[in-house]
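Entry:
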Amino acid sequence: MTDNEIKEQLDGMLTMVHNGEILEAIDKYYHDELVTQEGVNGEPLVGGKKAYLEGYKEFLENMSRVTTFKGTPGLTGVNVSTIGWELDFDNKLPQWGTVNFNELAVQEWKDGKIYRETYFYKPE
């Protein structure tokens, strides 16, 4: 995908996310064989988009307070993009609790969809 095609896709995805259509955005913009991981040393999520959607659904069902959940498109190139996330929320899942930090997501695109996404952050 070209830089401009990716920018258009990111704008559409972030509009959906900011309108509360997070699961729908994942379903529309993420590849069936999606691989996600936390930083370069994290274990990749197994199970593709289906597993990611299931995990995100549980995550959203346990949100108890959301002050900020905002994504801003960053650098883009041929088949790559970045999103800067501002996050401030509470989640009842024990591995989450209170979250207040900035995160950088780096995406690789394949077949017009996000195929790999790696998250970089340092919780405060």
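The helical segments are 3-18, 22-29, 48-61.
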